[in-house]
Write a structure and sequence with these properties.
Blueprint (H helix, E strand, L loop, with lengths): L13 H9 L20 E4 L7 H16 L6 E4 L7 H9 L4 E5 L1 H6 L17 H8 L2 H12 L2 E17 L13 E4 L3 H9 L3 E4 L5 H7 L4 E4 L1 H6 L8 E17 H5 L3 H35 L3 E2 L4 H8 L6 H4 L6 H8 L2
Helix pairs in contact: 2-11
Length: about 350
Amino acid sequence: MVSRRTLLTLPVPVALGAALASCGGSSTAPSGGEGGGSTPITLQAGYENNPGEPIDLAMNKWSELLAEKSGGTMRMDIYPSSQLGSKKDLIDQMIAGSPVITLADGAFYADMGVPDFGIVFGPFLFDTWDDAWRLTQSDWYAEQSALLENQGVRILTSKWKYGDRHLLINRSIDSVDGLKGLKVRVPNNLIQIKGFEAMGATPTPMALGEVYTALQTGTIDGLENPLPVLYNGRFQEVAKYLILTGHVRNFTTWITGTATFNALSDEQKQWLTETGDEAGVFNNEKQDLVFDETLQKMKDEGVTVLDLDINEFKQKAQSFYSMDEVTKNWTPGLYDTVRAAMK
C-alpha cells in the first residue's frame, strides 16, 4: 500500500488546476483551508530513498512544517522507494506540467542543458561543507538556477546533505593506483563517469538495483555512495573494503516544475521554500548522526576501512577539470570562477 502524507494543496488558475488534477491530485479541499470552493491541488514528492533514511525523515518533517506554517492550506503526498518512478521519469513529468517534486543535483542538470552546473559534482571540488553552502548562496549559483528555470525546472531548496560519497570495493588496495582496472559502478551521467576515469578506475554505469548481483558475479568490483545508501543496500555483504574518500560532498536540491511553482502566490512560494530550508537543517543533523552509526555497523559486519592517503586521490582527480569531454561545454575558466565564488 502506498504511504501518503500531505504537503501542498492550494488554489491555482483553472487551467493548471485541471492539468494537476488529471495527474492524480486530490480534488477535495482540506478542512479549514483557504480558497472557499476552489479546487485544490496536491504536489506529490517522489524519491528513491527508502522509509526511515534521513532524506525520508526530513521529508516528513517538511510536510509537518509546511502544514503548520500554512495553517493547513498546503499539503503534500510523499512517495518513497521510487513509487512514482525514476528520477528521470519525475523530471520529465514536472517539465510536462505534472505537480511533482523530486530531488536531483548538478550532474543531472548538466545533462538537462545547464552544463556549468555539473561542476558541483566534480571530484574533490569542496574542501568543506561550508564551501558548498557558500556556493549555493553565490551569484554564480543564482545564475545557474535561472538557466535551469528556462529548462522548466525550479529549485525549491538547496542546502540538503545527501552525504559524502565514499568507495566500497571487493579487494584491498594500498594507494590510488590500485584503482586501475577496477570496475566501479557509477550513476549514468558524464560527470561521475569521467571523475572515476580521472582517478584511474573503469567506471561502469548501472542502475543501483542491479549492483548487488553484479558484485556477486564479478561484473563490477565496487561502487560509490554515501554510507547509509551503501549499508541499506546490503552491499557490505559482497564488498568488504571501504575507502573514506569523500570524493564528492553531495548536496542535493529539491525541484518542481517552473509552471507549477509560478502558479503559487508569493506567500505560498515563501512558505514552501522556507520550510524546505528548515527541513534541510533537520536532514543535515540526521545525516551527521547516521554516518557514525552506519560506519560502526559496517565495521561490525566485517568491513575493513582502508587507511589510504586521500591527498593522492585528490591530486589524481584534478585531471578531471582539464578533460576535453568534460570542459568542452563549460564556460572558460569555470573551475576558478566556482572556487572563487565559494570563498
